Amino acid sequence: MIADLLENRLLAAALVVIAVPFVLVGYILFVEWILRRAPRRAADVIRPWLWLGPALVFLGVFLVYPTFATIVRSFMNRKGDEFVGFANFEWFFTQDSTLTALRNNALWVILLPLLVVGIGLFIAVLVDRVRYEGGVKTVVFLPMAISFVAAGTIWKFLYDLDPNVGTFNAAVTKLGGDPIAYTVVQPWNNFFLILVGVWLLTGFAMVILSAGLKGISTELLEAARVDGASEPQIFRQIIWPLLLPTVAVVATTIVIYALKTFDVVYTMTNGNFDTDVIANNMFTQLYSNLRPERAAAVAVVLLVAIVPLMFINIRRFRQQEAIR
After folding, report:
1. Cα-atom radius of gyration of the chain, to the nearest Å?
2. Same domain assignment for residues 271 and 144
3. Do residues 44 and 157 both lie within one domain?
4. d(CA 75, CA 73)
5. Which of 141, 154, 156 shows the shortest CA–CA distance to 200?
6. Which residues does 274 contact at the CB level (< 8 Å), separation at least 6?
7. Is the Cβ–Cβ distance between 80 and 73 less than 8 Å?
C-alpha cells in the first residue's frame, strides 16, 4: 500500500517535472506563432496579454476565486446550502476562544514589529561600515534560511521543561533555579512565542534597514560631524528622518506577518494554554471541528485586517518609486 502510494507520487512528480517545461515551451512557441501572423499593430496590443495570460489565469483560479468563495461560504450554514447572514461573524465575536486569539494577535502586532525593527535597526547602525559587518549580518540573517515550522520545532526543544533536553532550563537549573514551563505559563508564554518570530525576522529587517542606511549620503553625515554634532544627534536629526520611509515599509511588512502568524504557534503549542491566534483558530475550525463556515468567517476577519495594510505598503512603494 505504502509502496504503491510512493510509486504514484514519484510518477506524478516525474510527470510534472517533464510536462511543465514542455507546456511552457509549447506556449511560448504558440504565442510567437500567433504574433508573427498577426498585423503589427494588433500584435503590439495583444502581446502583453498573451504573456500575462497564464499568470492571470493562475491568480484567478488560485487567489481570486477562493477569496470570493470563502466570503460567500462565511455567510452560509455548516452544510453550505442555506444563507445564515452574519451568524458566523456573531459567533466569532462572542466566543472566548476567538476573542483570546484576537488578543494574542494584538500582542503579536504590537510587540513583533517593535522588537524586530528595533533590534534590526540597532544592529544595522552598530555594524555599519566596520570590518566584521559581513560576518555579523550573515549570522543575524541565517535564521531566515530556516522555515517557520523548523524554527518552531527548534525552539520547542530549547523551551523544553526537561533540563536534559531544554537548553534554557538546563542553564536555569545550573544556576540553582527551578525549570520554567515557557510555553505553558500564562500570559508569558505568548511573549516567548513572539521571541521566536523576532529571532526569525530580525535578519530581514536588518538587511532592508542596512540598505536604506547605506543610501544616506556619507558627505551629509561627515558635514554634520565637522559641525560638531554628536552621534546621537546625527542619528536623531539626520539618519532617522531619512530612514523613516524604509522603517515604515519594514514595520508594515512585519505587521502583516504578525496578523497571519500560524506556523510557530501551531508547531509549538497548537494554540493551547491561551496562545491561539486567528490563523490557527481558522485551521482548528476547518480540520479539527469540521466547521468550514466558521473557518471561512475567521478567514474573512483576517482578510479584512490584512488588506488595508497591504494597500498602505503598496502606496508607500509607489511613493518611493516616484521619488526615485
Report:
1. 25
2. yes
3. no
4. 5
5. 141
6. 100, 104, 186, 187, 189, 190
7. yes
